[in-house]
Amino acid sequence: ATGLGVGLIHQNLIMAIIVTIFAVISSILFIRRVTTPVDRLAETSRRLADGDFSAKMDMKAPNDEIGDMIRAYQDMLDNTAAPLNQISILASNIADGDLTQDIELDAKGDISKIINSFKKMQDNLRGLVSEIQETASNVASSSQELASSAEEMNASTQQVSSAIQQISRGSQEQ
Known about the structure:
This protein is mainly α. It is 83% helix and 0% strand.
C-alpha cells in the first residue's frame, strides 16, 4: 500500500508541475497579448509627443478594452496628427512662395478652427500678392508716363533755350 501511495504522490506531483507550467505559459501569453498593444500605443504616443505627426498605429486592434483604446487613439491621430501634418506641408510650400495649393482637409473641433484660420491666412496672402502686383504694374505705368513727360519737357526746354539764344543774338546785332 505504501508503494501505491508513493506512486500516487509522484503522479500528483507531476500533474501539479504540468498544471503550473501550463499556467505560467498561459500567463505569459496573456500578458504579451495585453502588453504588446500597450507598448505600441506608448511608442506611438512618444513619437507624437516628439512632434512626429506621421506616427500611426499599424496593427489590428483586438476586440476588447485594449482594442477600444487603440481604435480611439487611432481616431485621435486621424483627426489631429494627420491634418496637422498636411498643414505643415502646406505651410512649407507657402514659405517657398507657392500659394497655388488649396487646403482640402476634413477635421473636427479645434483642428478645424486651425485649418479655417490657415485658409483665411492663405486667402489674405493671395490678396496681398495680387495687390502688390497691381501696385507694381501701376508704378511701372506711372514711370513710363513720367519718362515720356520728362522727354517732352526736355524737348520744350531745348526749344525755349534755342529761342532765347536767337533773341539774344538778334538783340546783339541791333
